[in-house]
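Students often ask why we bother encoding 3D structure as a string. The short answer is that it lets us treat folding as translation between two languages. Here is a chain of 182 residues written in the first language.
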Amino acid sequence: MAKGALAIGVGAALLLGGGGTLATWNDTKVSGAGTIASGKLALEAGKGKWQAGKEPAASAAELPAEFQAVPGDEYSFTQPLTVTLEGNNMVADLTANNAVTSAFGNEAAVAVSYSTDGTTWTPSNQPLKASGKIHARITVTFTDMGPGGNVVANSADRKTDLNLASAPMGFKLEQRTVTQAP
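And here it is in the second language, the structure alphabet:
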């Protein structure tokens, strides 16, 4: 009986190991489904400048480095941007970068707007939908708020300076998710 089992084992090994064949059938085809390419989102910035006022004229002078703001003052940082939005459903939101919002904290209200023609300003809650050159603006309104958001009577308790060189002002472009219809 041991010889019989041994013979069966050797026979099976030969069949599986190359002495015979066990075949499975398969087939593949390549479809002509085309290509899916990724889109592109990019932002290039020109030189920006600070000016007095919520909507300063294009010819308004840049604020001097030693300028000191007081509560109620409004200033605008305007910068030319080149926006690239490539993709069938590409739309993007333009916001101030984190350095802007953290630099001012409770000391000021920050709003962002943009213009495609330099005269009509659109609030940043309306997304950009096309590539092109725009002017972007960060408007800062200094408040009467002190640390913790409390109204401050003593001006010595207010943060009175902000080093704009160490708090890089800028913009962030972020894709907005668009829900596609089924």
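Translate back mentally: The two ends are 68 Å apart (CA to CA). Keep this in mind for the problem set.
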